[in-house]
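Help wanted!
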Amino acid sequence: MSKITQMDALTLGKAIAAGEVKVTEATEEYLKSIKESDEKYNCYVTVDEEGAMKSASDVQARIEKGELKSPLAGVPVAIKDNMCTEGLLTTCSSKILYNFVPTYESTAVSKLRDAGAVILGKTNMDEFAMGSTTETSYFGPTKNPANPEHVPGGSSGGSAAAVAAGECAYALGSDTGGSIRQPASYCGVVGIKPTYGTVSRYGLIAYGSSLDQIGPLTRNVSDAAAVLTAIAGHDEKDSTSVNAKAKDYTKALTKDVKDIKIGIPRDYFGEGLDPEVASKVRAAADVLKNAGASVEEFDLSLVNYAIPAYYTIAAAEASSNLERFDGIKYGYRTEDYEGLHNMYKKSRSEGFGAEVKRRIMLGSFVLSSGYYDAYYLKALKVKALIKKAFDEAFAKYDIILGPVAPTPAPKLGESLSDPIKMYLGDIYTISVNLAGLPGISLPCGTSAEGLPIGVQLLADCFEEEKLFRTAYTYEQCK
Amino acid sequence: MANIISDETIEYVGILAKLELSEEEKEAAKSDMGRMLDYIDMLGELDTENVEPMSHAFPVQNVFREDAVTGTDMRDLILKNAPEEKDGMFVVPKTFE
Amino acid sequence: MSDYETVIGLEVHVELATKTKIFCGCSTEFGGEPNTHTCPVCTGMPGSLPVLNKQVLEYAIAVGLATNCDITRYCKFDRKNYFYPDNPQNYQISQLYLPICRNGHVDIKTESGTEKAVRIHEIHMEEDAGKLIHDDWLDASLVDYNRSGVPLIEIVSEPDMRSAEEVIAYLEKLRMTISYLGASDCKLQEGSMRADVNLSVRKVGDTEFGTRTEMKNLNSFKAIARAIAGETERQIDLIESGEKVIQETRRWDDDKEMSYAMRSKEDAQDYRYFPDPDLVPISVSEELLNEIKSREPEFREAKIVRYAEEFGLPEKDILLITENKHLADIFEETVSKGAPAKKVSNWLMVETMRLLKENNLDPEDIRFSPENLASLIELTEKKTVNSTVAKEIFEEMFKSDCDPVKYVEEHGLAMQNDEGALRETIAKVIADNPQSVDDYHNGKEKAIGFLVGQTMKAMQGKCDPGSVNRILKELL
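Answered by r_m:
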């Protein structure tokens, strides 16, 4: 039998169900792995050794009693630190929540617990999910396990790196503008952002509420389908959660793309795309073509407008969502202050990092008196146009295929200095959030330097099954 | 740079957002915000005359709860993370003059 | 002074009578220990999300229909962003761009006889804030979020009122309409109805409005009248002395009869409204509108006309009974059980009002059923009990809604209609009280009262005083 920490989640789940591996044993192995390598990678903000071991023995007992049937029962998972976990520190990698212990559980985590998941700890991220490198974390950057001199991507960098480094069997991340798909691509793992409304946002600490979605980061496509099956579903506590029947996405895992029409946006292969990335992505398209899919190029249009529209909407929503961090109810409060407003200002200015403050300032400005129509409303209109462009594309194609990021993972410290350059790196991922679409990032090779490269597949809203089927076929054929 | 952000604007947005920036941060914020706004101005190139603004990517409507009490007393939990509390309440700098 | 005209518009906040808060399942009940009616949603915990209480929408639409508004068929919630500790998210979920009701009006009639329509600009739904309490020991404030998230509607009028009298008539009209709908109890003192006054002055004949101020913290009709007088005078003084009225929010201090500007550099009053992405749009269907319309009660004006025609009641009775819908409902149901209208009215106006007042209760707190009131009236009509006993029964009914027939049986209170027994008792009373008998024969008419009293006492009240009088006179 292979090493526990090298197994994918479903394989480990099977071994546990068959009694070949005890949940406690699997958990211990992962905790050991974290001890060995996390000092180097810094994937975790919090490792819950005690809670994980307790949960492991509980789950083991429930499996033995036949109470847990989920294929993920007993499999250790890591949770991005912006999802509330009852009784377990939840910081959003921010000083302002350095001591926040939620008294309630996010719905996605609660569903995983119901499936018998063992939670190892909370993973590092860009502060409040604002960033693409995991360098804006108050708790220091996470390093890319493929090459620790490089970033793991972000904002779910801790989750992606933990999966890649064998510090968890799979992880949950969140994706507002590419925050699952881009780190998955940088770290060489699978990451899916489901259709907006598929996974409940209850308990997810909001960045851009109309864009945020929770999704899995896994070793392979089958794991991603199994995890999404476990966490998806209607939740009465989230008004934006879609009231649809629960689906078993693993049923879509068949090697068959003969009926799939794939469109490749020409606009994605223009200036700024690293030639190595371009060739790997095109090679991935060829694999699917050889498997029987039809592949053609088309013009998606509006690609360049997605970034300014996204940053306007996300910053505006974030400026409002982050108002609740005020030093009164929870989190950091400054030591010395004179009066209420000084307390607010000092707590927030000391508690938030530079990138968060930058976006709050921008968001507050674009919503302020006299600018709302010109910026925020305009961005919502452009969002409608972008959605329309995708609607037209999906009338012709089942799947849109393209790169995830323009380059492989950059070196630590190279991206933060110029915000616009940093934001440009999100060009292939953010329009998906604006249009609410599902998107998956799959490893499709490595650069000459040995850094992972990812390919992105997109489908129309609620067409996750097509996405999984195509992704699975690619994974099997490559 | 087409958008010149003044000290007053930074001061004003700081009041709205309750952020107090250092001199260095203010200078950075002025230049960052100006550049971001220049970049966002690109949206002006698109004709959106007859476009409805879209808040949600697809039309979910009429999500309600019934008017039935589900909450129980969870005061201790609500106050658990409070930086300062007294008599079951959150303590804040005085708001009365 | 008299060449100035006061122009007033109101922003009225009304707390809706739902069981739970607008966006979470916490109770709206008054008076719990601080923060015991709270949850992650109404305390702004990270990751919590709002879900709209359907009853809030229905009440808001009902009020809109009753005030002749257009109902916005596609409406949304917006966030109003401002930092204050009573507002846990530091934004209030409200409606700016697409409020639920627009363009309505109510007709008012002042005591001095002015009749006019006051136009309603809009009605929107929003959440209430928590409560701040000053703590002298810490010299700090304490926050209680029990009221945070209690549903409100804000009714914004056009600047159509010209005097305190009109303002009060308008508020009375809203109070009556909304309480008849059951959407709120509209109590100014308890804060379930709150009015902010927007006021400006101008020379009579001017067509432009003057600069207005907004006054807050007005918690009685008297305070509103005083604040209007005070602010009118302040603005006229400013103008007369060549100064300008500044557009600002002012806080009325009713003890000092003065208002204060509530200004600070930190209150930019730039609320950065935008559609709340955590809530989805509301689409109001024709069916829902019709359903709400069909539930609309008969309002007071209609009842006043009908009661006069149908029951021939005096105006005084009608006004009192229709002052409160619950009272009017009890009246109508009791009458429908066969009780004579005037008798029902008397019980409601005299004994019910007395007991409500003595017990510091509102008509909503009345617990006796119309059935029992009707059966008590029947007992008195049939002379099964006399009025003294009836009052005693009523007091018990008021407390415990007892069945008067059973109560009479259990306590043996039925009147003795056996004249033989009554005659025997009276004969005994006459024999036992020769002095009073003498007095009576000597022309002291009052002496008979004593003998009646003695007879009633001997009969334990279970006889009709009229019969006692008759037999006494006969035997004497």
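OP: Thanks! One thing I noticed: The first strand of chain B starts at residue 64 and ends at 65.
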